[in-house]
Amino acid sequence: MAAKEGDKVTVHYTGQLEDGSVFDSSRERDPMTFQLGGGQVVPGFERAVLGLEVGDSVTRTIPCQEAYGERNKEDPVSVARDQFPEGVELAVGQSFRLQADNEQAMVVWVSALDEQNVFLDNNHPLAGKSLTFEIELVAVEAA
C-alpha cells in the first residue's frame, strides 16, 4: 500500500547537509511517526514520503524553499548581556523562546557573543540550506 495524504506514517531517516555532515537521524532511536499532510514535517520531506510503500527507501535533496526557507538577511539583534537573568550561561547555538509585544512566541538563537552583547538570530538553524534525507518507510496506517 502506497503512502498517501492523510495516512499516519512511520519512517527512519538521516538528514545531511551539502557537505555530508549529519544534522539529525532516527537510526539510533525510535523511528518518527507523523500524518502526511498534517504539516508536522517540512513540505519537501512529506513529498518524499508520498507514494512510498513499506520497506521502500529513498534519498531526496530538498531545497531550502521546501525545508526551513531562505535565511532572513537582517542582521542579528544585539541585546545587552545585563538584559539576561543572572546566572544564565550563554553560548553560541543556544536557543531561547521569547514573547513578542504582539504575544506571539518566537525562538531565537545566540549567533555570537562579546563582552557586552548577545547577538540573537530568529532564523531556524537550517534556514537557507538544502537538506538531503535518506528515508525508509517503516509503517503506514491508512487514513
Return residue spans where pLDDT drops below 50 for at least 5 consecutive residues: none
Overall strand count: 9
Elements, N to C (H/E)? EEEHEEEEEE
Q: How many individual domains?
A: 2
CATH architecture of the largest domain: Roll
Please tell me about this protein's structure:
There is one protein chain. 5% of the residues lie in helices and 40% in strands. The chain has 143 residues and is mainly beta. The chain has two domains: 8-69 and 126-141, Roll (Chitinase A, domain 3), CATH 3.10.50; 77-121, Thrombin, subunit H (Beta Barrel), CATH 2.40.10.330. The strands form two sheets. Strands 1, 2, 3, 4 and 9 form a five-stranded antiparallel beta sheet that branches. Strand 6 (95-99) and strand 7 (105-113) form a beta hairpin. The mean pLDDT is 92.
Any chance you could write out the topology, listing elements then pairs?
Elements: E1 8-16, E2 22-25, E3 32-35, H1 43-49, E4 57-62, E5 77-80, E6 95-99, E7 105-113, E8 117-121, E9 131-141
Antiparallel strand pairs: 1-2, 1-3, 1-9, 4-9, 5-8, 6-7, 7-8
List keywords for this structure.
143 residues; Chitinase A, domain 3; 5-stranded antiparallel sheet; 1 helix; 4-stranded antiparallel sheet; mainly beta
Question: In short, what is this structure?
Answer:
With 143 residues, the chain is mainly beta. The chain is built from one helix and nine strands; from the N terminus they run βββαββββββ.
